[in-house]
Write a structure and sequence with these properties.
globular, 137 residues, 0% strand, mainly alpha
């Protein structure tokens, strides 16, 4: 097996693993976290107007973002940046043949990773972001 083929297979394995993990977050894990976070009401208290189940829009976006990046609630900016860089590099669609299923899955994963990163750092001080990222104006 050539080194290029082996590297391709390793990257495809990483992307597929992350894709499975992130795809599961949207359905199973998000609903589970939602039901754990929202206290259940008895049918008598709820009434007919509120008997419908909550939607994924009711889930805190920061909880989902932390799940996507795989960081804890008390993660620092450095931890978030490190997780983002690691996942972003692994899910780069240019690592896969153009037009393949792996490339399209990698693009979807990368979009979710970018969303999660932006969501988690939106409350971070701009000076800290620039200093920690070594971005100078």
């Amino acid at each position: 097996m050539s080194e290029v083929r082996r590297a391709y297979d390793l990257l495809r394995g990483y992307v597929n693993r992350e894709w499975d993990r992130i795809r599961d977050i949207d359905l199973d894990k998000a609903w589970q976290e939602l039901h754990e976070a929202v206290p259940s009401k008895s049918k008598q208290e709820a009434g007919p107007a509120t008997e419908q189940e909550p939607t994924p829009a009711d889930v805190d976006p920061k909880v989902l973002a932390r799940s996507v990046l795989g960081v804890h609630e008390d993660a620092t900016f450095e931890d978030i940046k490190r997780a983002f860089d690691r996942l972003n590099k692994r899910s780069d669609p240019s690592n896969f043949p153009e037009g393949s299923d792996e490339a399209s899955n990698a693009a979807k994963i990368q979009a979710r990773i970018n969303w999660a990163f932006r969501t988690l750092i939106e409350d971070t001080d701009e000076t800290e972001k620039r200093f920690k990222s070594l971005e100078i104006d």
